[in-house]
Every structure is written in C-alpha cells, then in structure tokens.
Amino acid sequence: MIRDDLLPHQEAMDTPDLVLPGVEVTGVPSPRTRDARITAIVRTEHDFIWRLLRRIGVPESSVDDATQQVFCVAARRVNDIVPGKERSYLFGVALRVASDRRRSREAREQPVPHETEEIDPAPGPDELADQRQRRLLLDEILAAMPMELRTVLVLFELEQMTKVEVAELLGLPVGTAVSRLRRAREEFKAMAKRRLSGGRIAKATP
To answer: Would you call 81 exposed, middle or buried from its count of C-beta atoms within 10 A (0-12, 13-18, 19+)?
Structure first.
C-alpha cells in the first residue's frame, strides 16, 4: 500500500534540491563554471575567429555579427566542447557560418560588371593607398580560391600557424596538409601574376 501522507521529513527530494550553489554534480558543470569557460574561450579565440571569418569570405561589414554567431553557437554547446579542442570546434562552426552567409549573400546579390570590382583606392598618401591596394588584391585572390586551399593558406601564411597545427585543426595528416599548402601557394602566385598583368580572376565555385 502506497502512503501519500508522508511526514515532511519523509518527503522525497529531487536531485536539483541537493545541488548547492557553485558545487558541481558529477559530469554536470555548474552555471558559474560554464560561464567562466565561455568567457575564457571568447577571450582566447575571438581575434582568431574574427580574422578567419574575414579571410574566408565574410565581408568586413558583417564579420562582427558572424563572429558573435560563432560564439553564440559555442555558448549553447559549451558542454559538448572537449577541453583543449576549443579552437577546433570554433573553427568548424566558423566554416559553416561563413558558408551559410556566402550562400545567402550570393542569393541576394545581382551580377555586376567586373569593372565595379577594379582596385581603385581613394586619393591619399602613397603608403596608405599602396596598403589598401594590396589588401584588396589579397581579398580578391583569396575569394577566388577553392575553400580548401584558401583555408590552409590563411592558417599558415596569415595566422602563422605551424604545419602540424594546421593539420590538426583541419583534421588532416601532416603530409596532406603540406601538399595542400603547396598547391595553395602555387595557385595564389598564379592568380596574383595574372591579376597584376591585367587579367581577370574567376571566382571559385562554392
């Protein structure tokens, strides 16, 4: 016979009633611990993710929003991120965010004549104009490269990561990463040469 007239001190306690503030139940981080980890991830990886998004095709006007989107995803799934693999997780999310935004932008945009993409820096000091021209040229070439080559080139040449670090981040054998980097360098040089000689660069197919 089940009794429903238990005395107060006999009432069953739910698991949450046993959790004290700041104390973790095995395998379940406390809110304070979770928030601290999210904050640490943002502080450590924010600049890297911002630069990565910018270099893999997110327009500068949208890169702040895209960066926030990446970290919002990470915050929701922080308990699933393996300690020590935070950058790898964010990297994967950033690639998906950049891809989604690129497809969305291409769906909205109408084709424009190539002349509107010509590098034409505004009047200013020669050094500033030269820097701007180089930056625009870099962006144009990177945008035209296949994503797998663009990514490895950005990580190694612009982020100054080692070949081993690049391979680990991309989930590739080191030999494959090195081979891909060699192809990326060759394609970049060929595109730069063609562009500087007055030719046009066909954008890569997503």
So the answer is: middle
Dist. CA 60–CA 189, nearest whole Å? 24
What whole-number distance in Å separates Cα of residue 149 and Cα of residue 142?
Answer: 9
46 Cβ contact partners less than 8 Å away, ≥ 6 residues apart: 67, 71
Q: Is 119-206 in the same CATH topology as 29-109?
A: no
Would you state the structure tokens that stand for residue 39, as one six-digit string? Answer: 């904050």
At residue 131's C-alpha, the angle toward residues 133 and 87, to 5°, is 100
Task: Say if residues 103 and 89 touch (Cβ distance below 8 Å).
Answer: no
For residue 24, what are the contacts with CB-CB under 8 A and spacing of at least 6? 30, 33
Taking domain 29-109, whether its CATH number is 1.10.1740.10 is answered by: yes
Query: What's 119-206's CATH class?
Result: mainly alpha
Distance CA 60, CA 51 (A): 10
State phi, psi for 28 to the nearest 5 degrees.
Answer: -125, 105
Distance, in Å, from the CA atom of 138 to the CA atom of 188, rounded to the nearest integer, reads 9
Predicted TM-score (pTM) of the model is 0.70
Reported residue count of the chain is: 206
- The pLDDT averaged over each successive group of 10 residues in the chain (206 residues) is 48 45 56 93 96 92 95 95 95 93 65 45 56 82 92 94 94 96 95 80 52
In the chain, where are the structural domains located? Answer: 29-109, 119-206
Beta-ladder partners of 25 = 28
